[in-house]
Design a protein that fits this description.
Elements (H helix, E strand, L loop, with lengths): L19 E2 L8 E3 L2 E3 L21 E10 L2 E8 L2 E9 L5 H11 L13 E5 L11 E8 L4 E2 H6 L7 H20 L2 E2 L8 E3 L5 E3 L6 E2 L24 H4 L7 H16 L8 H10 L14 H13 L10 H12 L3
Antiparallel strand pairs: 1-2, 2-3, 4-5, 5-6, 6-8, 7-8, 9-11, 10-13, 11-12
Length: 333
């Protein structure tokens, strides 16, 4: 299946976009001069195999972790190691969107960072079965834990204390900084897409809305295609207005996420269209509850949020600046 994303966007560094392709599970299996080139997973945890190759005999599916419009996510094992397996579902109403989502997930296939969910393997060549007919492809990822930040915020008896809020925020900002250093905008950052490991660290996942921006430039040259997905409550106002994507859209989403961690409330209620209109036309933002004003640290966190959800992207901090600010606040505890 051809990728709707230009091939030069997913080539390994150092390879020109003129390399001819051969039939394979993904466009990252390359051929030049009789030799085959591919992204090779640099890890001792599994095996030194190209990440686009799935060895089906080594893949075992167990529990269903979740499902939705994107498809299904299972817990399983691959070469004996616990992994998460995402089966991307075809969308009958918009087949292109399903394929774009699949390939967008692979924007981070070659990246490794402690605060990013790692891709282990991926393929569009699924063995014949009734389920395969409804599948765009399969992505095998590291298993980062069965708990999301959303669950921790809204479904646990104890609220997050300041130390946890800042620690989680530091992890998220670190992950964003790494993505942004590779010109990748996540575009769907929210608590449900942040996983909590057993050790209590955050990993950003679900890159189905992500976009690789032009190298050395945080501005998408084709903004009209950059914000069709994502969650409206966390979507930056410039994207709601139909402007081009910048990396600063993720900083706005971070602000909403941090507000949720502190307030334990949902950012907006009411009609979806009315909320989006108010965010754009009247600069609507979630209200600050008294918890933000009770302590000096609460007021400092409020200031961080205010800075991050500024109307204009240029007025928001970069992920690197945000991480520095959060770590400075951590040092005051």
């Amino acid at each position: 299946m051809p990728s709707p994303i230009p091939i030069h966007r997913i080539l390994p560094e150092g390879f020109p976009p003129t390399i001819t392709l051969r039939p394979c599970s993904s466009p990252n299996q390359l051929q030049r001069g009789g030799q085959h080139f591919a992204f090779v997973k640099q890890t001792k945890e599994l095996t030194q195999r190209p990440w686009y190759t799935v060895i089906w005999d080594e893949l075992k599916l167990f529990d269903l972790l979740g499902s939705g419009g994107f498809g299904w996510v299972y817990k399983g094992t691959y070469y004996g190691k616990t992994v998460a397996i995402k089966k991307v579902r075809k969308c009958t109403k918009n087949k292109l969107a399903a394929r774009q989502s699949f390939w967008a997930e692979l924007n981070v296939a070659h990246l490794v960072h402690e605060n990013i969910v790692k891709v282990v393997a991926a393929t569009t060549s699924v063995p014949a079965s009734p389920q395969a007919e409804d599948s765009v492809g399969i992505i095998i990822m590291e298993y980062a834990g069965g708990t999301s930040l959303d669950h921790r915020i809204y479904n646990c008896a104890d609220s997050l204390d300041v130390e946890e809020c800042l620690r989680f925020s530091s992890d998220i900002a670190s992950g964003l900084g790494f993505l942004h250093s590779h010109s990748i905008a996540h575009l769907d950052l929210k608590p449900a897409n942040v996983l909590l490991t057993e050790s209590g660290r955050c990993k950003i996942g679900d890159f189905g809305c992500s976009h690789k921006l032009a190298a050395g430039n945080d501005l998408s040259p084709n903004g009209q295609l950059r914000h069709l997905g994502g969650t409206y409550t966390h979507r930056a106002p410039e994207l709601l207005r139909g402007c081009s994507t910048t990396l600063k859209a993720d900083i706005y989403s971070f602000a909403i996420t941090l507000w949720q961690m502190v307030s334990r409330d949902h950012p907006f209620s009411g009609d979806r269209q009315c909320v989006m209109y108010a965010v754009v036309a009247y600069n609507l933002r979630p209200p600050f509850s008294p918890v933000f004003n009770k302590t000096l640290m609460g007021r400092k966190i409020r200031s961080v949020i205010d800075h991050c959800w500024a109307v204009e992207p240029i007025d928001r901090p970069s992920a690197e600046q945000l991480l520095e600010t959060i770590n400075n606040l951590k040092s005051l505890l």
